[in-house]
Design brief:
Layout: E1 9-12, H1 16-27, E2 32-36, E3 47-50, H2 52-60, H3 64-70, E4 76-80, E5 86-91, H4 92-99, E6 104-107, H5 108-118, E7 124-126, E8 131-134, E9 143-147, E10 150-154, E11 156-159, H6 166-171, E12 179-191, E13 200-204, E14 208-215, E15 219-227, H7 237-245, H8 252-258, E16 265-271, E17 280-281, E18 284-286, H9 289-292, H10 301-315, H11 321-347, H12 352-366, H13 370-375, H14 378-381
Parallel strand pairs: 1-2, 1-11, 2-7, 4-13, 11-18
Antiparallel strand pairs: 3-6, 4-5, 8-9, 9-10, 12-15, 12-16, 13-14, 14-15, 17-18
Helix pairs in contact: 1-5, 1-10, 2-3, 2-10, 7-8, 10-11
């Protein structure tokens, strides 16, 4: 199977991964339709960071410059203790010098808009749930998808239907699926006219963290993550944030007090810590959270979905397109999922001795030159999109 014998592609899911996949396929000349069950492309989430690896992929699709222009520069980022003392800090100029690009912080809605605007009118159908009926095969049988308009065949189906992917469950019924990470998260965007934070970064405490990322337009993406039982909820989530972080360093208490309660999102963190045996089956490719949902502690969830989309399109130049896609993506995403899990384990430490040891190690690492700090990011950030997938 390659792009020359794909009569049409169907993308299930209109999030960042699904829209990027649709745009990548469109750029390859593949007719594509996106089916999104929600009534509109309202983005779930508040803000995100686009690391250099994701920006290069978006450049390949022509939307990188638009998103860079929306990002707000800030001088430094790093880690602090709840007291405000820095554990490690680096200038954003050092990141751009090392990797050729900054880490661009943007609102999730801005990414959705940029991708949607680049697609031909009518590509995205909202209020249109889609279900895989049969996956087809490499021998020539097409996949079959059921939508509100009935059943239709497709030479390629891209399942970008999220962490609770029904498509993944149908293709790999014996896989255990996502596991609860132990963390719940809160996310919101706060308007702060004339009061921009001087630096972006996170504050790590005992079993919880909080983060501050300036956005364009006097906005700040503010978030928290804390150990909690799955499904636990507070009657007043803003009060819960102030209970957890009200005594931490500025500007966290001020930002959480200024948040609009109805705009505070809370979600438990589930992850596919057990890798799938493949990211494809028949004529179906799994993408983003459907393939490799990860905890947010490396900021790579959306970035890896964007990579998936560009690699999938590149693999369509090969006859063994989908096996090549799995070979290209499974090892890399498995490593990043594991890395995010390890970072989460450090955040989860609560014992005084363990937290002291963690913070001491981070402080010693922060004394090293920036090039040593950034070398740990290189395996992720140095990635470049392929023109054609290499042979498995």
């Amino acid at each position: 199977m390659n792009h020359e014998n794909i009569d049409r592609a169907i993308v299930i899911g209109g999030g960042i991964g699904g829209l990027t996949a649709a745009l990548a396929l469109h750029r390859r000349g593949v007719p594509v339709t996106v089916h999104e069950r929600a009534a509109s492309l309202e983005p779930v989430g508040a803000g995100l960071t686009l690391a250099p690896n994701a920006l290069r992929a978006l450049d390949r699709l022509g939307v990188g410059p638009r998103l860079r222009a929306l990002a707000t520069p800030h001088p430094a980022f790093g880690l602090r203790r709840p007291s405000g003392r820095w554990l490690a800090r680096a200038g954003t100029a050092a990141v751009e010098h090392r990797f050729g690009d900054p880490i661009a912080a943007v609102a999730r809605a801005e990414v959705i808009d940029a991708l949607g605007d680049a697609l031909p009118p009518g590509t995205v159908r909202t209020g249109s749930p889609a279900t895989l009926v049969t996956p087809g095969d490499e021998g020539g049988r097409p996949a079959v998808v059921r939508t509100g308009e009935g059943e239709t065949t497709a030479g390629l189906v891209v399942a970008a239907d999220g962490i609770r992917s029904a498509t993944r469950a149908a293709l790999f019924p014996h896989h255990p699926g996502p596991r609860y990470s132990g963390f719940t998260t809160w996310r919101t965007v706060v308007h702060t006219p004339g009061r921009r934070p001087s630096a972006a970064g996170e504050v790590w405490g005992r079993g919880r963290l909080a983060g501050v990322i300036p956005l364009a337009g006097d906005r700040v993406y503010t978030y928290g993550a804390a150990l909690a039982p799955a499904g636990a909820r507070a009657a007043d989530e803003q009060a819960e944030l102030l209970r957890l972080y009200g005594g931490w360093c500025a500007p966290l208490p001020e930002l959480f007090r200024a948040a609009e309660p109805e705009r505070i999102l809370r979600h438990d963190v589930w992850a596919l810590t057990d890798p799938l045996p493949a990211h494809h089956s028949g004529r179906v490719a799994l993408l983003g959270d459907a393939a490799h949902a990860m905890s947010p502690f490396q900021g790579q969830g959306a970035c890896q979905a964007i990579e998936d989309a560009v690699v999938l399109a590149a693999c369509l130049a090969r006859e063994d397109a989908l096996p090549a896609y799995t070979a290209a993506r499974l090892p890399r995403t498995t490593r990043i999922v594991s890395g995010s899990h390890r970072v989460g384990a450090l955040v989860a430490l609560r014992g005084p001795a363990a937290v002291l040891a963690r913070d001491t190690a981070l402080t010693l690492a922060g004394l090293l030159p920036a090039r040593f700090l950034l070398s740990g990011l290189a395996p992720t950030y140095d990635w470049r999109p392929p023109e054609v997938c290499a042979a498995p």
